[in-house]
Give the backbone structure.
Amino acid sequence: MAAKRNGSTTRRPAARKQTTHRTGRPTSGPVSQYRSLQREAERRASRTEKSTKAKEAPVQAGARRQPGTPLPRQHQAKPGLESEVRPAPRYLAPEYRGSDKLRDRVAIITGGDSGIGRAVAVLFAREGADVAIVYLPEEQSDAETTREAVAREGRRCLLVPGDVSDSAFCREAVARTVEALGRLDILVNNAAFQQHAESLDAITDEQFDRTVKTNLYGYFYMARAALPHLRAGSAIINTGSVTGLEGNKRLLDYSTTKGGIHAFTRSLSENLVDRGIRVNAVAPGPVWTPLNPADQPPEAVAKFGSDTPMHRPAQPEELSPVYVFLAAPTCSSYITGEVIPVIGGHSGG
């Protein structure tokens, strides 16, 4: 309807359009905008759901593509051999270029025959260090392969078979290293025993004893044996685990020891800081090593690492640069008492 004002005709403003909620009540203003945003979010969520398979493909963020899941179903008798794992774990890090960060230093690496230990031995050698690797006698063939890989880097590799849960052997391993290689600058505690169990009452006394003695006693014994030979600038690096940070319902004993390793790392770092000896830990998530086919049934091995944000396990060569960083005074002289997670991303849930 028109109205006259000062002899002219004007139109009244049109009534504001209202939308109606499904209950019949009218909506307008902010509520209308809320509903519009809601519909748009639902459309986007629908599109995202359709592309779930693509989003769950193994994430590739490195210098070369790494194997993803599903992995071949497989199982081994303990302690497991890297030479029998398929696909073979990657440890050479061919794109990594050494720069003398560890020139003429000497390292002992327990569990150095395979997995993370082998990858660390190779990169330490590429950075100029001689290494001694400690391993179980049953892993001799893997140890020989590691020695050959270190030799190709132009450095010496001493093989020391034995059980780190024996304190006398740990003293012997250190003595043999110093005698053969002339000194000791770096200790990498990496040997481990792991066995899944569905419940607390399924863990026998024997399993608990073996897990604790390998994973905790072994670290303690090796650190104590190495200490008289270490000096300012030396480093101790312990391999912890994401299970020691977050727990794991099927690895009760293993998670307990890994949490203990983290506490041991921080306590020992405080104990040795005035001597200029740094102590740190790396806490890996799932890593493709012989430990896993020797621990889990084939169907679990096939899915190993798929529940990480990167939807795959790490390869050993993706962990070893962290150990170089923590061992090298040029890189980490102000870092001690730290536990560094390398777990393929945080899920937030």
